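Shift notes (night). Ran Cytochrome P450 while the centrifuge was going.
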Amino acid sequence: MDSSWNFILWCIICFFPVLIYFLCHRRPANFPPGPPGWPLIGNMFDVGNMPHRNLAALKQKYGPVVGLQFGAIQTMAILSAEVATEFFKNHDVNFAERTILDTMKVHDFDKNSISLAPYGPCWRVLRRLCTVEMLMAKRINESAPIRRRCVDQMLEWIEEEARKTRPVEVARFTFLTSFNLLGNLMLSRDLLDPKSKEGLELFELMAGVMGWSGHPNLSDIFPLLRRFDLQRLRQNMDRDLGQALRIASGFVKERVEERRKGVQTDRPKDFLDVLLEFEGDGKEELKKLSDHTINIFILEIFLAGSETTSSTTEWILTELLCNLEWMTK
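Came back to this:
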């Protein structure tokens, strides 16, 4: 009996602060209409495991802007093209920032990231460098031989795996290829070369960083729990991202030393050279990019370019296998 009462008492102690928090953070009067939701969890069940369909159903009942609550977090779903245009074209600056996950705050990643940094000088510089230097047609055309070599290498990997008469995990090979291609474009390094210990270690660490950042986190739903890091996601992210930053910093320092000594190489100018050579006016934009910003930006390119490419390729192949007539020329 005593143990039962102790359990009940501890439940009351744990949930009482959460209930107080919810009572103090009720929906404001001007919050968009939406389903009422459940205590503590909010509208998680209303979204379910088919959010695109469930949100479309909510639009029929509540309109093109639906107010939702996930745990202690209030948010809105924009469910029409007209309203989305109004938000992101006519009021884009007001909605330029995004929610920062707890795991993405370690090592100030969010403050130096092109996808997470607040709208300001740092974000504008990084965006301009990507648009003008990395994604311009001339730069893409110059990288054609590198891309061809990386794709040929991927085909060799797939052929070798297929000879083992077992299923081929294509997404894994496209992920490896994307990672290696970005290493060549960013750092002029073949990171998956067996002789590159740092490259192989960086690959494993970035896979861990992707896992921790994409894992559902109670701290994002209930901010009161952030200090406890119950799932140890922030701790794991801090470890893996810290080690990845150490490796990236080593690459940057090596390049800086080469430039200081005036070492002549026959390699083409890569994106690390662009980052190191950047000079702003110091007024409307940064005067120079800090080493920490460069390190984080390099890692972010790996995060953004590797997983999305492999996921898209896997999705396309799945659709083709399910609809074989699409492959008929």
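The chain has two domains: 26-95, 105-327. The longest strand covers residues 65-70.
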